[in-house]
Amino acid sequence: MPQNPTNRPGDIAPSRYPGERLGLPESGPRSVGRVGRRIAAIAIDWAIASLLSFAFFRYDSWATIAIFAVLQIVFIPTLGGSIGHRAVGMRVVAVRGGWVGVWRPIVRTLLLCVVIPALVWDSDQRGFHDKIAGTVLIRS
Known about the structure:
The chain has 6 helices and 2 strands. It is mainly alpha-helical. The chain has a two-stranded antiparallel ribbon.
């Protein structure tokens, strides 16, 4: 018997808003951080990394990426997010709750530095780097 193409096994119904499947609110505190805030946060973090790279390494591209990575890896588990995240009112949390730990920021950052995973999102607006690390970027 042919299956209905709109109801195939394994299909997941689309969410009404980003974060619904994660049990997060549609808006306000603890809702998924939206694109504008994410872009602002990464721009702030990249600007800080660029300034430090310029000041200490003559704006070496590898030094800039390394500084960016160190800022992410240090501040996500200690402050709950990078300087840029915190400046725009967001934080990184573990999807299953609890402390984000040390390994999640490392995995998330290494994938973020590759860039492509950050551009691949799901319906909850989680980048591939967040999915692999088991994290979500939410509003504070």
